[in-house]
# Entry
Amino acid sequence: MKGMQRSINKANSTSIESSRIAQPIGTALDRFIKNNQDQFQYASGELSQLLRDIALASKVVNREVNKAGLIDIMGAVGSTNTAGDQQQKLDVLANIRFTRALAKGGEVCALVSEESETFVDLNNDGKYVIAIDPLDGSSNIDVNVSIGTIFSIYRRKSNPGAPIQKIDILQKGKEQVAAGYILYGSSTMLVYTTGHGVNGFTYEASLGEYFLSHPDMRMPDDGKIYSINEGSANSFSTGIKNYVQFCKDKNYTGRYIGSLVADFHRNLLKGGIYIYPATAKDPSGKLRLMYECNALAFIAEQANGKATNGKIRILDIQPEDLHQRTPFHVGSRKMVDTVDSL
Ligand code: FDP
# Structure
């Protein structure tokens, strides 16, 4: 080692961080959840674990969504795969994945899902209730268009240990302690809030991790994109008809993917409004309060946007039924105010 004395100077962490040889990869979801755990009033770590469980299940669903076309090639629904298992539709698969992930840790006492008629009774000791649409926009799966998962997390009202009660399940949206969505799009993103702003994470498949890509997301106050299924225009109320005409008179852009999460996400980033009003076919609107609208309403409000049923705030609606529907106006606050005033 003569003449080869190693330097014991400390490496300069700032120069390493800014090195152009290897770009920093940013903050991983796990690290972000951990760093922000204290913001949550019941900082016991259970909510953090739930968010991690949801993220993990979403990675598995993402893998399955990505091979959706292949599943069709390899065997239609109703046939069996090589292991002899029945091939399932993707929304059923997603429901199984999320239910399993959420049941495992024991934090959840009950799960409300679009895929189950009644709520799923899990662990009486669990402190949380979850409402989830495991795969929203499922009519878009077959045609390779973006789809999503939507989830709401509530703290149970009754004491843990006792059987779950109606008051635990039928909570108003404003009682949510966290909510989020996963968008399986041109890239896969997880966006969530715990009531302290909204943050978005993009999935890096080769590393198998979500990384913070959209910190502190803010919806513009106003926008020029309107998303509504105009095929039902004949049965819109006069107010909605007038608003659609208003958008046309202003030369706004019409964009309707027909996948709620994808339409919402675009409007969150660019400014816009998504409307699913009452129609002749769906007199109370089509979308479900508990596992579609509440989560997106919470996220919209946390990101400077607004969500109503045309009359009142979505988060103030008292649910009477697990699968209750509601008209839904969500997006940039000025646009929501305008449509609600007509
Ligand atoms: P889907 O029926 O494909 O699951 O949540 C229901 C939903 O999709 C939304 O994602 C979407 O915005 C809406 O319904 C589309 O409904 P229409 O086809 O009636 O426009």
Q: What stands out?
A: The pocket of 2,6-di-O-phosphono-beta-D-fructofuranose is lined by residues 136-139, 229, 258-260, 286-287, 292 (CB under 6 Å). The chain has a mean pLDDT of 89.
